[in-house]
Write a sequence for this structure.
């Protein structure tokens, strides 16, 4: 477990390096063949487990070609491969059915090209988002993708399709990715897209690999479109009164509504109404985030405005949020302003929960059309568990963290209960992370309409099921 | 023949009059907006629902007959070019806006709805559909999805793929499937958009609606030459401003527009730049002052600002009419569509100039300067012997230039049949084989718009990357080339 | 069909959404682009089939495509040439042929039309009873009966109307066939408005049909005859400007120099045809506008908006009336289906378009529908009547101006 990186296994033969290594492969064992690629290989330790599954080797390639060499060996020896970047979300998704080789992209850590005049960057998959941001900031630019976990790599961010608060304005990884290089299960190196933002030549493999959890191949390089760093940022944060629910643990009965509460919402001030008003506001917030400890905590809403005139626009958002501070809510279903709220604060610092996942071990993601936000929050509250809900209120993509010690059946009940409630609202709940034993009785992904097509894609890209097998929905 | 039998069966699943077999009528469907590729379809069908399309596609599968989808037929790469041995499925009768949901900022529409019709349906409520290809009043949303259409404003707002939340598609084997942006796993929605009809047919689109910006300011800047204009573009982008649009026209393009619509651009301009800023009033006011200053610093000799929608329309008029207007200064022309990194623009424009002089072929330049998307209009006289060939050569060389500078052979018109031969210049065999894997996953029999996008016929059973002789499946008659 | 004109079409499709038949049916052959393609096929040797002729016949000739075309394709000329070709080459069904004969022997002749007006001028009640039967016998006859407006007194127009106040101009005035017979009050209003704005109005009694119906239906010879006669009539009247209040007539007269040859073309060029609204805006107002507290929906007649490009002028004149609120009709560029003789020859399509237009007119909630073409007015009111909704009042731009200038709220 403490095997130091870059140390070849004692006793392993020095294998031929570079071109021609393939030919030397004949008759070699998998171990020998891997080492024969010239890529740094080490024995896996317990710290390398992928959602509880131990690989045998860890490879540390330094180039796309090295990844390709590893994949060719893996193909020849039927090795199951899982790529890993920062390892921050390796516990997300299903455990792989098997895992022989972990391909650690940490050494793919170059930024070969930052074409600032073109607002484009080409970056290797192992570069962390922090170091990318640092490089870009030196020339006043940024990748407008907030990643909720420190230490994430570019490849990991793409493979898990995570995004943060500013998804409202800039979209997610798939919207900012303009080119990609991948290595397929058989070692084929393929690129799509390019270095220009506007480009419709050929299929967009980048989209396919976004959210692929390593099941199609290994992302080795990406090209992103960039944005200038905005000259000013203001956060406007307000508390909304806690829902007047009797926080009982009993199923289906946790939403009594007292006088003065919004009809059918359970919230004195409807988060949905706040979200609708802010999203439609000409102040154009870049993000509108929610933080709430269900079932009975005060809701905190925070909006970000960016730009030269951020201050003036922040005032407009403040007026919107705090227009009738202290009064009880008066918003009807139509969502028209004003809503009431508690105190409003404004500043150039984000609240400390901003863009941070609400939890690590048992983490779910709830998506609904924005009109279903109240219903979705109520669905969480109704389960009576202390759930931390956080995420984009305006985009209605929320992460839900449950207590790490939650039991499997309890988790399953939570998931099926919330799914039952949000389904009719057009919503969906997925389990991003949960320890295998707790997640066993749970369908992590819920129904996925396009699953048969995804399976067919998987079969074409990885017919031998060697790329992170089983990590995704439907055993993909 | 399979097609005749198919036609008989198709008539049974479609409403009366929805199957066209009369040869004179069929010929009117022989091309889309790109007229130098013409193929008369075997049969044209005009279905009215996803179920009807699915039924037609299933019949195509039963008889092994290829099919091609078509919306308004405005594409500029021959993407909707029919097949003589196939069915042309036209969605022009599916043009209902099924639902407008302002609270969720989305609308659900049928594929034959025009791009502009969506905006018109929601404009009074303060919303619009952001992608705005120049043909927006006629092109259909189904076609936009197939081509991943952009428009003048995609610099700031992105393309169709960034504004589609869900798609209902008929897969090449005839299933009706929903691709949803919220689905976990592979972004099949994103992969489908821009696949030019080769992965199936769009039968329903959920689009994102955007809030109409608080304010829009449009500026027309006239420069003595294109270099100064280019310098202004660099200065604006370098200054951290992302305008909604930056468009540039050169002297020849200005002359054409002037001849067609008397747009009244400043006399003597060697280049005009249209810069549009939108957003919150305070932001725009600040940026506008900055843009004005940068234009002047770059040598603009005249600046005009549109005060209202009418003046804005007047500024855009010349730009929007530019393509068709070129017909007034030249008997024939080729509209090219290529992309280069913005910083390579000066180099590439100079090279185009040289090409033009070398071959005696005039080239008018109209382009989305903000994102390096060139639309050179290669002018020639089709009555002059050899002129068309030389124009074709210049046009092709421009694409080579784009590839050499790390750009793309198409920014928005698509590959279609017209540019499939350039794909191997832009991508390696491995890249193309990998794309082919996607194709094979969706369409193993290769019936959906075959012959488009990809240059080489390839078998889905074939192992990518390894080229052999005749495939055993073909040899044994169990599979066909497509 | 001039191949040069056909070649101007680059197949961009910008015409599609403006074409009424494409709006109805969504089929390429029934769009301007498709029809031009059919013309090309014919020019290249494909014989004129029944199908082909049917698609040409289905064109309303509204010219919305001409407005929309960025390449400047002269579809107006093309369809005129094509219709002539169809008339020459194509053998129609006997019933169709008879109806066409009837229309062309009737409508362009004011006196014959006057004789016919009586039987067509049925009371509303009688019309309702007779309509279904007529519909069964022949939809076109039903359409004719349905469209004939309620009768109005027919004021006689003098040969010359003197200018009120200082004389600013002398102009001729076309009375038109359908306008003159079915809507004489519009002509009276036109003459009064011109006079009140300081024009001496010359109305030659010898004038007849301008030739529009024939020209738009593939009868160039008949059209040429009418055109020459009209030119001669105004020459004799000694005017060099002719004001026209009917959109279809105005657009045809503006084309005289193109449809006539040689000396006649020269003579046609010497007379300037101008639409009433176009002329009044150009002239500028002198008469006082009295308030009219009305909400008005203005309908663009195709032959005014598309064929003559007159859109802003009528709107400007209307909005200059104090108290008058102007409302736009959705899809204003789409034809109402009247299109000259179209509602007689293609009654089903015309009816569908009429209903579409009526719906959008009613949606404006206006008190009054204003248009500059008698055909449109008839078409839209009959669609509203069929829909069984409360009828909307209709008027010509001239009548509204007349009421305002005279200071009466009653629109005559």
């Amino acid at each position: 477990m403490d095997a130091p990186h870059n140390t070849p296994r004692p006793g392993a033969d020095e294998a031929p390096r570079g071109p021609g290594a393939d030919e030397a492969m004949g008759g070699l064992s998998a171990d020998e063949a891997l080492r024969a690629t010239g890529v740094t290989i080490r024995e896996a330790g317990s710290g390398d487990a992928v959602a509880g599954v131990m690989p045998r080797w860890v490879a540390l390639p330094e180039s796309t070609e090295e990844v390709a060499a590893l994949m060719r060996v893996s193909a020849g020896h039927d090795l199951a491969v899982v790529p890993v970047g920062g390892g921050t979300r390796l516990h997300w998704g299903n455990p792989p059915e098997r895992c022989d080789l972990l391909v650690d992209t940490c050494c793919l850590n170059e930024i070969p090209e930052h074409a600032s005049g073109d607002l484009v960057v080409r970056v290797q998959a192992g570069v962390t988002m922090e170091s990318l941001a640092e490089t870009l900031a030196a020339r006043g630019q940024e990748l407008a993708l907030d990643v909720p976990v420190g230490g994430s790599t570019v490849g990991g961010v793409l493979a898990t399709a995570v995004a943060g608060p500013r998804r409202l304005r800039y979209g997610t990884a798939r919207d900012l990715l303009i080119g990609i290089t991948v290595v397929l299960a058989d070692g084929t190196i393929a690129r799509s897209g390019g270095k220009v933002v506007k480009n419709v030549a050929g299929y967009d493999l980048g989209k396919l690999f976004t959210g692929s959890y390593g099941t199609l191949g290994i992302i080795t390089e990406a090209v992103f479109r960039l944005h200038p760093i905005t000259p000013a940022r203001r956060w406007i944060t307000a508390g909304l009164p806690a829902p007047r629910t009797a926080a009982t643990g009993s199923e289906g009965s946790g939403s009594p509504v007292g006088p003065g509460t919004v009809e059918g919402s359970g919230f004195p001030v409807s988060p949905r109404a706040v979200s609708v008003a802010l999203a439609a506001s000409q102040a154009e917030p870049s993000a509108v985030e929610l933080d709430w400890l269900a079932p009975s905590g005060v809701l905190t809403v925070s909006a970000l405005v960016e730009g030269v005139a951020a201050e003036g626009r922040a005032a407009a958002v403040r007026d919107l949020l705090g227009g009738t501070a202290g009064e009880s809510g008066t918003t009807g279903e139509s969502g028209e302003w004003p809503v009431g709220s508690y105190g409003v604060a404004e500043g150039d610092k984000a609240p400390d929960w901003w863009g941070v996942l609400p939890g690590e071990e048992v983490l779910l993601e709830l998506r609904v059309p924005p009109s279903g936000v109240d219903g979705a929050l109520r669905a969480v509250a109704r389960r009576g568990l202390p759930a931390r809900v956080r995420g984009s209120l305006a985009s209605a993509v929320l992460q839900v963290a449950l207590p790490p010690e939650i039991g499997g059946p309890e988790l399953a009940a939570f998931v099926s209960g919330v799914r039952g409630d949000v389904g009719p609202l057009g919503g969906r709940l997925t389990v991003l992370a949960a320890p295998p034993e707790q997640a066993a009785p749970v369908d992590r992904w819920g129904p996925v309409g396009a699953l048969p097509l995804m399976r067919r894609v998987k079969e074409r890209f990885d017919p031998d099921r060697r790329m992170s097998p089983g990590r995704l929905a439907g055993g993909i | 023949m399979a097609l005749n039998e198919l036609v008989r069966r198709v008539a049974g699943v479609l409403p009366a009059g929805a199957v066209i077999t009369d040869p004179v009528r069929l010929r009117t469907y022989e091309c889309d907006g790109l007229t130098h590729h013409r193929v008369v379809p075997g049969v044209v069908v005009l279905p009215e629902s996803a179920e009807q399309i699915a039924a037609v596609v299933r019949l195509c599968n039963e008889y092994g007959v290829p099919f091609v989808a078509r919306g308004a037929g405005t594409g500029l790469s021959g993407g909707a070019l029919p097949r003589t041995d196939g069915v042309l499925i036209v969605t022009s009768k599916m043009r209902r806006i099924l639902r407008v949901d302002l609270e969720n900022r989305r609308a659900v529409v049928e594929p034959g709805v025009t791009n502009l019709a969506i905006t018109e349906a929601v404009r009074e409520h303060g919303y619009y559909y952001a992608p705005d290809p120049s043909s927006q009043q006629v092109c259909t949303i189904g076609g936009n999805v197939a081509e991943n259409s952009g428009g003048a404003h995609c610099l700031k707002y992105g393309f169709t793929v960034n504004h589609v939340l869900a798609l209902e598609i008929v897969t090449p084997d005839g299933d009706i499937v929903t691709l949803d942006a919220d689905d976990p796993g592979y972004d099949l929605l994103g992969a489908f958009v821009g696949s030019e009809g080769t992965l199936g047919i769009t039968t329903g689109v959920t689009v994102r609606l955007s809030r109409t910006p608080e304010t829009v300011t449009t500026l027309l800047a006239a420069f003595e030459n294109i270099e100064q204009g280019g310098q202004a573009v660099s200065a604006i982008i370098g200054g951290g401003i992302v305008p909604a649009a930056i468009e540039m026209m050169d002297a020849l393009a200005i002359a054409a527009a002037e001849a067609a619509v008397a747009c009244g651009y400043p006399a003597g301009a060697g280049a005009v730049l249209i810069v549009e800023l939108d957003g919150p009033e305070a932001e725009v006011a600040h940026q506008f002052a900055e843009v004005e200053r940068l234009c002047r610093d770059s040598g603009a000799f005249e600046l005009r600002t549109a005060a209202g929608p009418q003046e804005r329309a007047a500024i855009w008029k010349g730009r929007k009419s530019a393509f068709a207007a070129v017909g007034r200064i030249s008997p024939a022309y080729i509209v090219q569509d290529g992309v280069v990194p913005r910083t390579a623009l000066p180099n590439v424009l100079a090279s185009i100039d040289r090409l033009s002089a070398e071959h005696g072929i005039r080239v008018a330049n109209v382009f989305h300067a903000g994102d390096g998307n060139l639309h050179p209009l290669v002018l020639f006289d089709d009555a002059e012997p050899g002129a068309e060939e030389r124009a074709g050569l210049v046009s092709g060389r421009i694409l080579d230039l784009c590839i050499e500078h790390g750009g793309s052979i198409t920014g928005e018109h698509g590959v279609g049949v017209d540019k499939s031969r350039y794909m191997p210049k832009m991508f390696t065999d491995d890249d193309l084989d990998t794309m082919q894997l996607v194709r094979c996953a969706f369409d193993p029999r290769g019936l959906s718009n075959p012959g488009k996008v990809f240059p080489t016929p390839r078998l889905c059973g074939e192992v990518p990357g390894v080229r052999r002789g005749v495939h055993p499946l073909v040899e044994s008659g169990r599979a066909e080339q497509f | 069909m001039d191949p040069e004109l056909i070649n101007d079409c680059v197949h961009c499709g910008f015409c599609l959404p403006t074409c009424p038949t494409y709006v109805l049916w969504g089929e390429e052959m029934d769009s301007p682009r498709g029809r031009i393609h059919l013309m090309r096929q014919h020019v290249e040797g494909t014989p004129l089939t029944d199908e082909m002729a049917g698609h040409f016949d289905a064109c309303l000739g509204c010219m919305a495509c001409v407005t929309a075309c960025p390449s400047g394709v002269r579809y107006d000329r093309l369809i005129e040439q094509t219709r002539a070709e169809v008339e020459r080459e194509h053998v129609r069904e006997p019933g169709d042929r008879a109806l066409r004969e009837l229309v062309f022997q009737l409508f362009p002749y004011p006196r014959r039309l006057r004789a016919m007006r009586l039987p067509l001028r049925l009371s509303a009640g009688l019309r309702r009873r007779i309509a279904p039967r007529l519909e069964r016998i022949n939809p076109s006859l039903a359409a004719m009966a349905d469209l004939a407006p309620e009768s109005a007194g027919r004021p006689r127009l003098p040969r010359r109307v003197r200018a009120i106040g200082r004389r600013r101009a002398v102009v001729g005035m076309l009375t038109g066939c359908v306008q003159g017979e079915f809507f004489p009050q519009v002509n009276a209003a036109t003459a009064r408005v011109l006079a009140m704005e300081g024009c001496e109005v010359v109305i030659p009694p010898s004038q007849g049909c301008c030739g529009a119906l024939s020209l738009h239906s593939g009868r160039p010879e008949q059209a040429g005859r009418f055109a020459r006669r009209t030119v001669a009539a105004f020459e004799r009247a000694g005017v060099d400007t002719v004001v026209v209040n009917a959109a279809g007539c105005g657009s045809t007269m503006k084309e005289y120099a193109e449809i006539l040859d040689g000396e006649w073309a020269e003579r046609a060029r010497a007379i300037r045809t101008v639409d009433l609204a176009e002329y009044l805006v150009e002239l500028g107002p002198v008469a006082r506008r009295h308030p009219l507290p009305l909400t008005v929906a203005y309908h663009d007649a195709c032959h005014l908006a598309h064929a003559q490009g007159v859109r802003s002028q009528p709107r400007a004149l209307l909005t200059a009336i104090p108290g008058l609120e102007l409302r736009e009709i959705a899809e204003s560029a789409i034809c109402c289906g009247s299109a000259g003789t179209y509602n007689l020859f293609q009654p089903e399509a015309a009816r569908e378009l009429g209903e579409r237009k009526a719906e959008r007119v009613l949606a404006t909630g206006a008190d009054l529908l204003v248009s500059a073409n008698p055909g449109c007015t008839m078409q839209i009111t009959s669609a509203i009547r069929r829909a069984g909704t409360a009828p909307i009042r209709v008027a010509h731009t001239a009548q509204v101006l007349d009421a305002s200038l005279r200071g009466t709220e009653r629109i005559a």
